Amino acid sequence: MPEVQKQQLAPALSHQVSVPSSPLHSLTYKTLLKAGSHLRPLQQVHAHIIISGLHHNRALLTKLITLACSAGSIAYTRQLFFFVPNPDSFLFNSLIRVSSRSGFPLDSIVFYQRMHRAELLRSNYTFTAIIKSCADIAALRLGKVIHSHVLAFGFGSDPYVQAALVTFYAKSGDLVAARKVFDKMPERTIIAWNSMISGYEQNGFAKEAVELFYQMLEMRVEPDSATLVSLLSACSQLGALDLGQWVNNYIVDNGLSVSVILGTSLINMYARCGNVTKARQVFDGMLERNVVAWTAMISGYGMHGYGSQAVELFYHMRNHGPPPNDVTFVSVLSACAHSGLVIEGRQAFLCMSRDYGFAPRMEHHVCMVDLLGRAGFLNEAVQYIEEMIPGEPAPAVWTAMLGACKMHKNFNLGVKVAERLLTLEPDNPGHYVLLSNIYASAGKMDRVERVRNMMIHKGLKKQVGYSLIEINFVTHMFCMGDKSHPQTTEIYQYLDELIWKSREAGYVPESDSVMHELEEEEREFAVRSHSEKLALAFGLMNTHHGTLIRIVKNLRMCADCHSAIKFMSIVANREIIVRDKHRFHHFKHGSCSCQDYW
Fold this sequence. Notes:
The protein is mainly alpha-helical. It has helices at residues 3-14, 23-35, 39-51, 58-70, 74-82, 89-101, 105-117, 124-136, 140-152, 159-171, 175-184, 190-202, 206-218, 225-238, 241-253, 260-272, 276-285, 291-303, 307-320, 326-339, 342-354, 362-374, 378-388, 395-407, 411-424, 429-441, 445-458, 488-505, 512-515, 531-541, 559-571; strands spanning 466-471, 474-479, 549-553, 576-579, 584-588, 591-592.
């Protein structure tokens, strides 16, 4: 803006009053609309407003200020607003809504606070916008204050405000408050349903998200794309392939457009539920694929141990797809690490900085240490940590190094790494468990006991393991030694029979690898009652011969379960897929897709 016009701005706006509309006003308003949310044209119109003597017109200035905010110039917006005397409710409402919608939640909150101090009347538009701003920054305490204002101004029953509150509480992690508002809604909009389902899914309550979706169908509310995206993510967490396939069929049967977001959600669902072939079919059928979709497919190959396919798709992406981002390289490096593709992993890491200019983040360093460590290059992995990582390496780097030491039974190095980890994170029970595993593998049971006593002294407990299996759209959960299932007696009887037949086929329990983790009274169940074995027995009992069994476990599968399920795939003559914390294991005819490299 010219300096002369800047000098005119303050006196011009400081004496602002409303004036009747005129042909010049109408023409200027049309010019404003034509300028739209483009900063330089807006500044030119602003100069014209001052020169033309229209700087007293509140309607023009309100439109100018809101368009300036939409243009992304919050500083210019504040400058204009500062010179408006006695701003009215309409101007405040416009600013609160536009700044919230334009990605300026803090400014939206400031405008609301000034409006509140001015004791101006608020509308449902005011509250939906300011609640959205609180949700965007997870400002739980402030949002609760706004909620009290909602009730004080009589908007507690407004469906749009209620939907905004559900979204706010869900995004802020207060699902109890979100559900309380949701349950009190006399008429629930699709936005409210989506917010509640998404809130459950994003906070790790996938089962509750699915249950609420079923309730939504019972109420005859038609799901939209946003509903299906959240539901597919919940299916991914639960390994609920049947429900995920139902969603896919629903999309096809109702002729819904498969957007990039929805298509990527389908890819993730199929990949994380064990059907990477179907994930690739969805990927190939997408009319538009962005970097997120490509990365999802590469990641899907990687978690299944199909490293060569992941690398091949990565190079196809470089030649024919969008440029990869830093997350893409995490997926490629992880795929190489899980498949022993050291050369390919080195090449991908090199081209990340050489060809695309990405500086390695800690996630990339973790992948490289994992890649080298799993392949047995322990000394090189240590050298990489010391020379390639600036500053203090994150605990995740040392955790990857410790896992490699356990895998290759390097007792001395493993102890040093574990001690470093315990210094960084002295209250992380996972580190103590890994250290005790290394001691146990080396036959140092006295030191295992010492680590156990340290955990007891600190009040630390190992994370509880559980396994999920979906049968006929119902997800069943099992924990170690679980006896809560209605079919408990039959499950244990069937599991005993499976283990007996597996022993005849050559299975030898590896109890030493797990005995030290358990209390004395639990040790009789150590070999036979891990959650994935119980889930497998239940699945085999309740499905027809030939049905593929899919199990999801929240922790890494132990060596004994891995060995046992290989033999169980023979005696039961079934294909079994287990997704643990790190990757997929496809068991068939006595072998696993990981080739014992996991």
